[in-house]
Design goal:
The structure is a homodimer of 531-residue chains. By secondary structure, chain A is an alpha+beta fold. Chain A contains 19 helices and 18 strands. In chain A, the strands form four sheets. The first copy, chain A, has a seven-stranded antiparallel β-sheet, sandwiched between helices. A five-stranded antiparallel β-sheet of chain A has the order 5-6-10-8-9. Chain A has a four-stranded mixed β-sheet with strand order 1-2-4-3, with helices on one face. In chain A, strand 5 and strand 6 form a beta hairpin. Chain A starts with 15 loop residues before the first helix and ends in a 12-residue tail after the last helix. At the A-B interface, helix 9, strand 9, helix 11, helix 13 and helix 19 of A face helix 9, strand 9, helix 11, helix 13 and helix 19 of B. Chains A, B: One of its GO terms (molecular function) is D-lactate dehydrogenase (cytochrome) activity.
């Protein structure tokens, strides 16, 4: 690991480009997968934790006739039935183990046509269905609440086509994001989206939830990069819109409706997406600043100086790094002392010398201006990976004490961190925060400053109604008062179904409900969620 | 103008960066407005040219009661009525003068509430309405076919808000694109879209038609950069979705439906859009190559070498430049001799030295490899403007002989130019092409290679059914056979209403028609068009 450059930068002749910035030219898979199951087993069912939610009596309970039908269209490997031999917990529980459904049947069809047959049957029979990708969601959107049938896309996992001239990838929805990325990386392209769960989440799942992640600042949202979709509608109709054109103005852009629809109006089975040329050079720098005001100042400078090569601008508060330290025991902390805030900056470009020079200029300016108080720049791929770990370990570290309440919000930049402070105050006032046996470890803040996206994680020793009541609707009211969004990138799912009103007007909600009813009149798709 | 660099590049020590690439650091408004009325007056009405299209008898003909109502809610300046004093040709005719409607009434409301009142009334009374922005469309989408009321957004022309930290602009739909761009330019940002008609077209109009233009290669489509919209629905309901967050996953992304809907399901009255940091440096190079295959090779090289600073990659065929020469009489052609194809490359970035160096490396490679046979690089802002003229003059030059049939299609890169060759063959076979009195001057091709977007312009001395019958459905069948789009960026409008089936499947068309009927059950918005 590099020594910090604070003392050295006092010299005006410092050459970061030559002496310090020497990370290797290409780093494809340096970000580790952070996606594992909570250590705390959730023994209570969602239906027990939320007794006010009732099973919708319109939905049929599965019968042996239904099973026989599914057996008639699917092979044995495509059907998982709960019994003495088969435990469906993996499918019934989310990865945080906050939500636990009671499904007795998981179908894993191997073709789009089978997805169509299943939905057609379920629609006719009024059987509720939960579409499930990698089940890495954070709002309980991919697990059943009651006995909904689980339709897993995991067996639809083929790359269909890749055009190395245009960079357009067509694949099944169930392809794991990391596999898709590795595939295009071999042909000098890169998936335009990256996130911690890449080793488990599906391409279809990230599209269905309009995932944001670590590359949005540079490459924009999936609404811009997805070129086409194949979708099975609730009645089983297959809509093939797998186009591969950057420009196509022929009719309403219907695919947009399914991006971020969380499986409520159709199931995405195929994705056509524009990938981006693989950068030839990466740099990562880890900096400290003394206030959130200075985080913003560094961001403005980074946009000016790093401009077209700036690919990530993440901030982490002190407490988030303290938690990360407890998990990264073998790793030396990048800096010599603790600071209130840390920033991770990534650049990616096509010319290492140019990128080094821009980073050098940027670092000299922020050091000279005294905004940045300490920092390191990765010298090689290993160091680059290590620096990213301090950002990527946070979700895991947040719940290492037992559990975590996760909020993912958009806020104006100036208000971004005040939510974390307000939340800690609120939990203190409620007497919930402190050393064990107090249930709350603390609220931490980190996230994508460049996108105005804060992750507020409340690390807890156990899930409890007291904590939830202290947090909600408090967090949502705060966000609403600042005209933010109660879901920046995680979605609504089960957790935020009742809170959409804090971000959307009654007209908008009415239109959303109207579209849901229009496309899914029997309401069989992903019930009890979204809207 | 620079001398060509062909001979000089024989020297391996050439330094483009030092000696040739000296364009000034910032060029905001160097692209001239190309948007004027055809010299050929179209005396025939659209209804005469297309006798198979009949006025929909469901629509009410305007009465004095209707006029009295509009007078009760609007001021005198907001109403234009056809009479001896008032000629509504400007509103009834498109800028190519291909289409001519018969509207007797133009309303130019000054507030969103008035737009709402007008639509509410028209919906109740079944009065057909054509929303109109800058009326710069190329497919007859913004002018009436019969006696539809014209609702012009020209008086909704205020900048509402601009946030210099995030770069998010909120403005009325009727703000002229160039004004919006100039406004944010003063604050070091740039509108993410640029096109020839910028001096006349409206921000709302470019969103309603999902215009592509010259910056799409770099900044992506409006589906990615538009953050929020204010829309008045056909029944007059105002839907305020003027959000200003890069990330907001709370419900279906309804605004996407209106982007590219061409005013058929709602009228956009306000736009919230993410602008981009203004580049600090621009370079423009104008090159010649000997085949379309070499155009593609240069493109692949440009993506590799210019990567994150490549902001435009336009190609022009020989005939397009011959036509441009006839218009740009005072200007010297950039190169010494004629070639089959020309390429205009623009880079924009944050560091002039780095950009120059990248361009130099790129040019050295394509010259050494013998792909590029001649070329110049702009040395200053004037030269940069002049080089762009050879691309931007083409639409005007195409119709200088009397008129132009314009096709705007997406095709796989390898097939992009073959459509132009096929079209010239087809017109020759039909005996339509040649010197006067043959009606067709010739088919030319140019466009945005980076987006797979070809502009096929058929320059004619007069519009005629013979030409139209030779071109259509021939052009659309060709595009369909290559799995392209019959409208890359111009939209469907009136011209392509019946040709959507060449790009979209019957399921997709059914869903599009279903949405139209859902949101506009009386079909009052922009009838006889789109779908």
């Amino acid at each position: 690991m590099l020594r910090n450059f604070l003392v050295r930068s006092a010299s005006s002749h410092l050459k970061f480009g030559e002496r310090y910035v020497k990370s290797s030219a290409f780093l494809g898979c340096y970000k580790r997968r952070v996606n594992y199951y909570s250590t705390k087993v959730q023994s209570r069912l969602t239906s027990q934790n939320y007794p006010n939610i009732h099973r919708d009596p319109r939905f049929k309970r599965l019968t042996s006739d239904d099973l026989n039908y599914f057996k008639s269209i699917l092979s044995e490997q495509e059907i998982l039935q709960a019994n003495e031999l088969e435990d469906l917990s993996f499918y019934n529980e989310d990865w945080m183990r906050k939500y636990k459904g009671q499904s007795k049947l998981v179908l894993k069809p191997k073709s789009v046509e089978k997805v169509s047959l299943i939905l057609n049957y379920c629609n006719d029979e009024k059987i509720a269905v939960v579409p499930q990708g990698g089940n890495t969601g954070l709002v309980g959107g991919s697990v059943p609440i009651f006995d909904e049938l689980i339709l897993s896309l995991a067996n639809l996992n083929k790359i269909r086509n890749f055009d190395p001239v245009s960079g357009i990838l067509k694949c099944d929805a169930g392809v794991i994001l990391e596999n898709a990325n590795n595939y295009v990386m071999e042909q000098n392209y890169m998936f335009p989206l990256d996130l911690g769960a890449k080793g488990s989440c599906h391409v279809g799942g990230v599209v269905a939830t309009n995932a944001g992640g670590l590359r949005l600042l540079r490459y924009g949202s999936l609404h811009g990069s997805v070129l086409g979709l194949e979708v099975v509608m609730p009645n089983g109709q297959i809509v093939n819109s797998m186009h591969s054109m950057r420009k196509d103005n022929t009719g309403y852009d219907l695919k947009q409706l399914f991006i971020g629809s969380e499986g409520t109006i159709g199931i995405i089975t195929g994705v056509s997406i524009l990938t981006v040329p693989k950068p030839k050079a990466f740099n990562v720098s880890y900096l400290s600043v003394e206030s959130f005001e200075d985080v913003q100042k560094v961001f403005v400078r980074a946009r000016q100086e790093l401009s077209e090569i700036l690919s990530a601008f993440e901030f982490m508060d002190s407490r988030s790094q303290t938690l990360a330290k407890s998990q990264l025991k073998d790793a030396a902390f990048p800096l010599e002392s603790d600071h209130p805030f840390y920033i991770l900056i990534e650049t990616s470009g096509s010319n290492k010398d140019h990128d080094d020079s821009k980073l050098e200029t940027f670092l000299e300016k922020v050091m000279e201006e005294g905004i940045v108080t300490d920092g390191v720049v990765a010298q090689d791929e290993t160091e680059l990976q290590n620096l990213w770990k301090w950002r990527e370990m946070i979700p895991e570290a947040s719940q290492a004490n037992g559990g975590v309440y996760k909020y993912d919000v958009s806020l104006p930049l100036k208000d971004l961190y005040s939510l974390v402070e307000a939340t800690n105050n609120k939990l203190s006032e409620a007497g919930l925060i402190g050393e064990s046996p107090k249930p709350v470890v603390g609220a931490i803040g980190y996230g994508h400053v460049g996108d105005g996206n804060l992750h507020l994680n409340v690390a807890v020793r156990e899930y409890s109604k007291d904590i939830e009541n202290a947090l909600e609707p408090f967090v949502y009211e705060f966000v609403s008062s600042k005209h933010g969004s109660v879901s920046a990138e995680h979605g609504l799912g089960f957790q935020k179904k009742n809170y959409i009103g804090y971000s959307k007007s009654s007209e908008e909600i009415k239109m959303i409900k109207d579209l849901k009813a229009h496309y899914d009149p029997n309401a069989i798709l992903n019930p009890y969620k979204y809207v």
